Structures are given as structure tokens and as C-alpha cells.
Amino acid sequence: MITSNTSHYFTPQKPLGEYGETRTFSWNEREFAFVSGSGVFAKTGLDAGSRLLLQTALPHLATLPPGAVISDLGCGWGAVGCVLGAALPEHRILMSDVNPRAVALARHNADLNHVSHTHAWCGDGLAAIPPATFDAILCNPPIRAGNEVMGKLFDDSLHRLKKGGALYLVIRTAQGAKSWQRRLKVLFGNCEMLSIKSGYRILLCTR
């Protein structure tokens, strides 16, 4: 449960009044600039789980036809969305987060890295998005938000994927990845583990 005196990256917070230091992270020999701040996930750089998610999903995403629509669900400050935007210039990258501060940072970081075919908005999961919108969804879900929040994200994902669309997830083994794989198999009718490394599992569900 989230109490009034508890601050988490999935707790909505106001955008920062001004941006602090610009940092960088590396991906495939490219340096990405970013600004982060308190109250957002992995504020110091691209986290290991998201890195494995990108490494695993990008070869599949690169085979999608031009104009494919990809969601970075729970985008934080935009690390995954920026990498996707740079690697997949012919696709549309839509980033979303419940935290207004994270969304403002994601927009700023997309501008910093000149990935103009991305768009970020603030919302509760994908509730405001029409059905069958996305060819693929990538998500590093907020485990600490609880099962109800997680379940809603996955249900939203099922209904917003096009037929044949794919949901890529990264979950730690120690945080219930095996259990979530069983639940997702019931929800989607399928769920396979694509890779495992350093305690992280990448799961794939296809509509």
C-alpha cells in the first residue's frame, strides 16, 4: 500500500521546476544524454533490467514494418523510449507514465537526443488508448506498486495490442517472475521466457 508519507517512482509528482545536470549513458556505441531527478525510477542511468529488455526485444522489433507503433509503458525518464527512437527511426514510439515528473523528463530527454518521432503522455496505464493500437509494448513494470496495479497494466496491454502484437516484460526472478509468467499465460493464452540474466527474466506474450 502507498501511504501519504511514502514516495515511489509510481507515485504522481509535479514536474521539476528546472532541470539539473545532464548525464549520459551508452547504448551500442552511441552516447545518450539525459536529465533525471528525484522520484523517478533508475534516476542514475539505464538500469540492468531495461538494458536486457532492449537487448532482447530490439531484434524482433526491427522486423516490424515501417510505421509500426511501439509503446514504452511506464517510461520513467525515457531511457527505453529514447533508445527505441534512435534504433527504429521508421516506427512511432509512444511513451507513457502515471508520474507527471517522469513524463516531463521523458519529453525533455527525447528532445535532447533528437528522436522527434516519439511522443510522451501522462496517464493511468493505457486506459485512454483505443483498442488494437500497438504492434508491440515494452514494460519494466513497477513491482512495488502491487499486484492490482500490475494486473491492470497487463490487462490494458492485452486489449491495446493489435492481433499478433507482442508484450515484452522484464521481471526479476526474486520478485515473482515465475508466478507472473503463469498468470500471463492464463491472460494471454501464452507466455514464454526469452532470456534470463543476472536475476532478470524477459517474458514475451503475444496476442
**What is the element string, with H for helices and E for strands?**
EEHEHEHEEHEHEE
Mean pLDDT: 90
What is the CATH superfamily label?
Answer: Vaccinia Virus protein VP39
Q: Please tally the β strands and state the result.
A: 9
- The assigned CATH architecture is 3-Layer(aba) Sandwich
Tell me the fraction of residues in β-strands, as a range. 25-35%
The number of domains is 1
| Assigned CATH class | Alpha Beta
Structural class: alpha/beta
Helix content: 25-40%
CATH topology: Rossmann fold
User: Biggest β-sheet, characterized?
Assistant: 7 strands, mixed
- By DSSP (H or I, 4+ residues per run), the number of helices equals 5
Radius of gyration: 16 Å
Q: Which regions are unreliable across 5 or more consecutive residues at pLDDT < 50?
A: 1-10
Shape: globular
Strand order of the largest sheet: 5-4-3-6-7-9-8
Question: Which structural traits does this protein have?
Answer:
207 residues, alpha/beta, Rossmann fold, 7-stranded mixed β-sheet, two-stranded antiparallel ribbon, 5 helices, 30% helix
Describe this structure as you would to a colleague.
The protein has 207 residues and is α/β, with parallel strands linked by helices. The protein has a single domain (23-206), classed as Vaccinia Virus protein VP39 (Rossmann fold, 3-Layer(aba) Sandwich). It is built from five helices and nine strands, in the order ββαβαβαββαβαββ. It has helices spanning 48-61, 79-87, 100-112, 147-160, 177-188; strands at residues 23-27, 30-34, 69-73, 92-97, 118-122, 134-139, 161-172, 192-197, 200-206. The protein has a seven-stranded mixed sheet, with helices on both faces. The two termini are 31 Å apart. The relative contact order is 0.15. The model is unreliable at 1-10 (pLDDT under 50).
